[in-house]
Amino acid sequence: MSSSVPPSVVPDQTRRFRVFLVDDHAVFRSGVRTELGRENDMDIVGEAGTVAEAVAGIDSSKPDVVLLDVHMPDGGGVAVLGRIETGPVCLALSVSDAAEDVIAVIRAGARGYVTKTISGTDLADAVRRVAGGDAVFSPRLAGFVLDSFTGRSTAPEPPLDPELDSLTPRELEVLRLLARGYTYREIADELFISVKTVETHASNVLRKTQQSNRNALTRWAHRRRID
After folding, report:
1. What is the dihedral of CA 91, 93, 96, 97, to 10 degrees?
2. What is the reported pTM?
3. Whole domain around residue 137: which residue ranges?
């Protein structure tokens, strides 16, 4: 792999960085493990090849930094960012350098974006930097983000949240009331619909947002400031 991000951080020998790998290619994950394993301050605390595995693994292992592939089945990196608990910093690590991919994953919450041509040493440096609060990009990708937020981007506008966009207006109303702690009966009274209809809408919301229960759905909604 060739260098993409100039080293700028002298490793703090007193700190260790807990890293979780998300990529649907096991061979690539193995390569990243090997590269970061050469660094004295890096601990790989878990890895996953699917969105569901990633969400469960990240929430249980509590890493400092998640190295996140952008293109995977079931929604890819954007879906992972939308479903994990708050806490870890996410750094996109992708073969893609397309503007729309960069903008979508940054808007979803990633702290930086580097391509898979990055060297192992520079990747470790990027991990340290995002863990320390910096935003990190491969050089030419930073321009995409600046253009996007200054209104000069020519890239197609990506959906801000595919799962949220999939909800109907009524399902979104039900989601807002669920997030506020309303019971099904209270939602039915508020919206002048039957409890059975509320249950149907709630079931659809859980399915479309890929949440397992109401508590998880409430956390998912609060992360998007839906209340």
Report:
1. 50
2. 0.61
3. 17-149
